[in-house]
Amino acid sequence: MVSPLGTARRGLPVHAVLAVLLCVALPVAFGAYDTTFPFGRCSSGPSPYRVEPIVTQPQQQQGGKAGATAGARTFCFKLLARRPTQGSCSDYCCKEAGVHKLEINVKPQCYVSGDVVSATLNGKPTKAAAGLRRTTNTPPGMNATVLAVTQLGLPGIAAVDGAQVCITLATNKDRRGCTTLEDLCVPPAGQPAGTCAVALFDATIRCCPTSSARLLAGSRPGTSAAPSPPPRPPPPPSPRTNCPPKAGYTLLVDTNWEGLPGWKGGQEASGEAAHKLCDADPQCGHWNNWGYWFNGAAKSYFEYGGLCSYVKNGKEMYNTRVSNFFCGEAAAAVGTYITTSDAPLAALMPPAAIAGRAGFILEQRYAYDAWTLKMPPREPPKPLGKIRPLTALFPGKDGVVAADQEPVDIVPAKNGVGRPRKRPRVEDTADVAAVQPAPQPAAAAPTDRGEEAQQGAAPQPELELEPELDSEDNEDSDSCSDSDGNVEIVESPGRKRKRNARKAAKPRDHKAENQRRRYVPAWTIRFSWSMALAGGARVGCSVCKLLNKHVDLFPHNRQLKQHQKSPAHVEAVAQEQEELAKKARLRDKLERMQEMLKKMQDEFDRKKVTQLAQIVHLLLLGRPMTDFEATHELMQVLKVPDIPARHWNDNAAWLLAEALEEAVLDMLRERVKKAEFIGISLDEATDVSNKSWMCVHVYFMDGWHREAAFVDLVELTEAPDAKYLARVLLSTLRARLGLSARDLARMVVGIGADGAGVMAGEHSGVLRRMTDGATPYAITIWCMAHRGNLAAKKLSGTPVVAKIESLVAAAHSFHSTSAKRQAAFAQYAEAAGTKGNQLKEAGDTRWLSLQPAVSTLVAEHVAVALQAVHDADADRSDLRAHGLSAQLLDLEALLGMHALLPLMEPLQIFLKQCQATSAFVGDLVDALSRTKRIIEERYTNSATAFTGDAFDSYHAFLGVGSKPSPLLWDEEDGCLGIKVDGEWLELTAVRPRVPGAKGRPCRQPKPVSPDVLAEVTQSVQRQLKEAAEEVVADLTRRFPPVPVLDALSLAYPQYWAGSIGLDGKRTAPAKADVDAKLDTLERYFGGSKPAPSDITYIEAPAPAGPNVAAATAARGAAAAAGLGAAATAAGDAAAAAAPNAAAATAAGGGAAVAGPDAAAPPTGGGAGVPAAGGLLAPAPATAPSIDTSPLPPLLDIAKLRSQKVLFAPEAHEQAVCVLEAQETGLKLPKGSFVAFWQSMTRSAYQLDTYGEFARLAKLAATIVPGSVEAERVFSTMSYIKNKQRNRLEQRHLSLAVRMKVQRWFTVADFPYSKALAAWRDNAAFRWE
Questions:
Q1: In what helix (H) or strand (E) does residue 1292 lie, and over which residues does it extend?
Q2: How far apart are CA 272 and CA 261, in angstroms?
Q3: CA dihedral in degrees (559, 562, 564, 567; nearest 10)?
Q4: How far apart are alpha carbons 689 and 618 in whole angstroms?
């Protein structure tokens, strides 16, 4: 088989196959492997997300060994989310990213077959199963492995903070797998075994903050030991940790803190990072060696093994009582309470800090095991310990009280809370210093809280337990035990005697008490009807008030009870209950009606969707709307459910179809508004009813795929000059796409059209008018397929090519007009040994169709010639058969067809590339260069002309007498002919004129001799050589170099691959050439452009009929206001639909103020598209504000220059890889351009590094190479609007074409809900 470029496709060499595989399999950045976790080019910078450093295990399941095993193999990672407070926080990873995936760096030996890991998120299984996988960005042999939990779906800080991801490890059926963190995780450098490195990725894989977590030694399932907030009680003490002191901070060894409610802080990557942050932030007061830090005060401190806590000087903690703490304020500083349980921490306090009341104040702690509700029977309670203050300030009702108040003891109470008790007053504050406890060394700390100091520890004065109370004290106290030994409070006899004495000493004043009585809100519990009157001095009844009965009661419990039992109140309550029951019945009835209406609505929607789906099916097939009515009976016969009974005629079907079009237009507008750049193509054609139409398409990038979207098919009601067409184009774009004039000017970067003068005129064509005003950034492209077709038609001027075209047309006409000949042709093909393929027709408008027609005729030549000769011999009067047989046996035509095919092949490939939907301008420029090079090698280069594999068929045909050739020499007269099925077909030829010969040449065909064969062969080669030279010259003339398109080659891999040297290696583009192209881009896209001027809309035709008077009034009002022709025309159109002159006048005035930025509303017929044709300006109530500032540059050239340093070398490597893979036969489904840029932007790092080059690539890809899509639409229009449907007007014709050509949906996935809503808004309907 011969390749399109003329090279034989034979077995690929091994090194070529390996090169292709390496390009596909290896990472894009050659030599730039990622050897550190998380093995990808993502940002691990500032991020609000971290993993808590302590791994926890859930409580083991009770009741079986299996449950315990599962609990022991489940490890939970808690996610923390606190935005960093220091530095800038403007990048994506810090402000917008969420958490999509969690990865853990695991050991390669844990990568085993089977499901050995599962995961949950907040106790529920994750959407995607967790698993182990090998990474692809690491060097071969590294075998880096990660455990990935994907699709977490945590969008922001609120969702991430506190979320818990648990993994359960298991073994496979071969008992292989890692079931502990020590076996599973690869610990970070310097961390102990069992420490896991964890990375959190966002949905774009651009952000991957990393942190570490481990399971503390000795922890069991169901326990947690996170440093903040800490557990209560703390774990048992561990050996002292070696903590280095830090200047400006007080060191607490093996100590953690507990923050106050609402504390603010976070975690950094290491302790040193937290140290630096705390130094820089004056609000920061605490940090530790695990990287945690927080601002402000600490609630308490407690023992925590392995943790070094540092507290900034001046940020120490003071407390007044258990619930109130103050930090850093000398005025609020008070003494601490230290009990025997605080001995381990008391040793850490420096004496100077205690004496000056500026040091660490440790948390007041009690022996919690002594707080019990069970006490020995009839035994008075004992205080836990004597508590002496270090200052003259003591806890009181407000936290800090004066020194003259009495000190208190804490004693247990029935509810487990300490109850203050009076103690002797401390009169002399000097005695306080005498009872200050001496600081104790850490070695003397007891091992259990609540016990006395061990041997060798310094004694603490005044810390002995208080003796039991005497009987006198006990007489005034409350009893704290019952018969069962439970603690309870009862009134003592002494206290009861005192209370009775107070009663007898002072009689009660009932009158004064009544005056002071007020309404008690708690009464609403027993008396729900009660309400306060007169500021609470009186009580009313809400039930009686509803029945117009006034109730005024004294605020006393007795009176409220009496009113509640009164007959009037009971009757009022009964009436209220009856009214409530009526309301409940009415509410139930309304709910049932609403439910019934909802069911009716749902049923109606289902039925209407059935009709909509049937219409979508018909429109996708291009069928007429009259078929819709016929489907009703068919659906009834098939017993299709949910069939509506109405709206089954073609008029109702068109209303439904208009609603369907509205849904498609909404999809179009949404996609266009998301695009950065758009391209436009347009063309003009005439339909079967001789009406002129203009088709408009828009193009935009969706990722790296270019979408082509049909905009509209507009009827041209005036003479199609350039000015009129430009106004129609702008009005159509704004009406259908909903874009303002400024949006169009900013977004449109390319316009494609054919080469007609009205379109591509140099001074006043449509393209020139667009670039001079409405779209200043647009690059105009004369359709490359059209230009290539015109250049190929140059071959028709060559005599031998003209003879071939005539032969192809005659042969097709001879066969296609007679069914008898077509039936007999199969027999002749069998006799000639050919396949009997039907002959093809060469079109008049497209030279592209000639190549397949010539190829078919060459293959079936012998059978066609045999049939033509037989028909001519059978009927001497059949002139067509005689003429065709003479043409088929002409040697020059036969040789010309075989010699022309190698020339037609590259032209055919180039024209097909130009007509492809996904064709990019840069790819076509490269294809054009390749096409000219192939033609020159095959025809114009004397060293290689008419040689090579492409001419195998030509040389085989000239091999007279050999097996492949049908040609034979006649043994009798030596003439050339073809022998088939025992018959001799003699070839003839007109002897070519010898150059320079005199006289008139003989044009009479004669038998072919060897001399004549040589002369004819030379003549054919000479003619085709001259034709090839002319085609190459015409291609060069029609495709001149354009500086801006040449500069846009920076976006294509063909440029970055460079040129091939003599050694076969590619050389990267020169730096000077890249800089020159950037300078060109700066001139075109790097500067601002003036804002577009006002754009005049297309005037609608003047209305007729009863609204003429209204239109006249509207035009008069607009003219009187001096609003111009556009406003007058808008008033005409509005008056056509207005019921009276006043409405028309208002509509005219409203349309007149509509500026170029007034976006058209999406109405059923398209904004401003009346049924009679033409477009109207929208008519807002007020004039919109028009932005007249200059348009911003499309490209940041400074970024391009800075990114070029890193982009150029990697682009060269990737371009070479992609193109070599394509040349070796690897199929790239979307082409080399898309493959190149998918590789260059596959990671977030590359997208950030080459962001402006990616923007340049999308700009270049949006520029369309012509108007091929419009040609396809015109073919669809001809299919839909045929002779039977020639009355279709613009509204319905555009709708039918849109639904057939815009393949964004199928019958199954069409957005019927949007269409149904549009139908309800635009059509009158009744319930069925």
A1: helix 1290-1301
A2: 26
A3: -140
A4: 23
| Tens digits of residue pLDDT in 17-33 | 434 343 434 443 334 46
The DSSP H or E segment spanning 305 is: strand 298-312
pLDDT score of 1110 more than 60:
no
Residue 588: strand, helix, or coil: helix
- Candidates 1172, 1175, 1182, 1173; CA nearest to 1152 is 1182
Are 900 and 807 contacting, i.e. CB atoms less than 8 angstroms apart? no
Structure tokens at 1281: 């609007």
Query: Residue 64: CB partners within 8 Å, gap ≥ 6?
Result: none
| Pairing of the two strands 748-753 and 779-782 | parallel
Tokens of 1163: 């109405």
Any residues with CB less than 8 A from the CB of 999 and at least 6 apart, and which?
A: none
Q: Which two tokens stand for residue 1126?
A: 């556009």
298 vs 256: CA distance, rounded Å? 10
Query: What does DSSP say about strands 988-989 and 1006-1007: parallel, antiparallel, or unpaired?
Result: antiparallel
Q: Terminus-to-terminus CA distance in the chain, angstroms?
A: 65
Going across the sheet that includes 145-149, the strands are 131-134, 145-149, 101-106, 195-201, 210-214
pLDDT of residue 1109: 35
- Element at 308 (helix H, strand E): strand 298-312
Using CA atoms, how far apart are residues 1250 and 957, in angstroms rounded to an integer?
56
Reading the block at residue 685, the tokens are 């054609």
Phi, psi for 435 (deg, rounded to 5): -105, 10
The pLDDT value given to residue 1093: 63
Q: pTM for the whole thing?
A: 0.56
- Neighbouring CB atoms inside 10 A of 138's CB total 19
User: 284 has which bridge partners?
Assistant: 295
Q: DSSP characters for 100-142?
A: -EEEEEE-GGG--SS--EEEEETTEE-SS--EEEE-SSS-TT-
**Pair 876, 842: CB distance under 8 Å:** no
What pLDDT is stored for residue 315 in this prediction?
A: 67
Sequence-distant contacts of 8-16: CB under 8 A, at least 24 apart? 8/949, 9/1225, 12/1224, 12/1225, 16/1224
For residues 1235 and 20, what is the distance between their CA atoms, to the nearest angstrom?
13
Angle at 856 between CA 851 and CA 862, to 5 degrees: 135
Query: Above 60 in pLDDT, residue 1106?
Result: no
- Side-chain-facing half-sphere of 1150: CA atoms under 13 Å: 15
Cα diameter, the chain: 164
Determine the Cα–Cα distance for residues 820 and 822; give it in Å rounded to an integer: 5
Residue 459 neighbours by CB distance under 10 Å: 11
**Phi/psi-derived region of residue 122, left when phi > 0, alpha when psi is between -120 and 50, beta in every other case:** left
Look up residue 1272 and give its amino acid.
Answer: R
Confidence of residue 714 (pLDDT cuts 50, 70, 90): very high
Under the banding of pLDDT at 50, 70 and 90, the label for residue 111 is confident
* Nearest one of 1056, 1050, 1038 to 1085, comparing CA atoms: 1050
Residue type, 510: H
DSSP line for 26-50:
S-SSTT----STT-SS-B-SS-SEE
Residues 6+ apart with CB under 8 A from 7: 949
Dump pLDDT digits (tens) for 1156-1213.
333 333 333 333 333 333 343 343 444 455 677 889 999 999 999 999 999 999 999 9
Q: Which two tokens stand for residue 765?
A: 């064509």
Single-letter amino acid code for the residue at 799: P
The answer to whether residues 717 and 786 touch, using CB atoms and an 8 Å cutoff, is: no
Distance CA 1061, CA 1066 (A): 6
By the 10 Å C-beta count (0-12 exposed, 13-18 middle, 19+ buried), 415 is classed as: exposed
**Residue 986 phi, psi dihedral angles, 5° rounding:** -85, 130
| H or E segment to which residue 1240 belongs | helix 1231-1240
- 1013: which 2 tokens? 């064969």
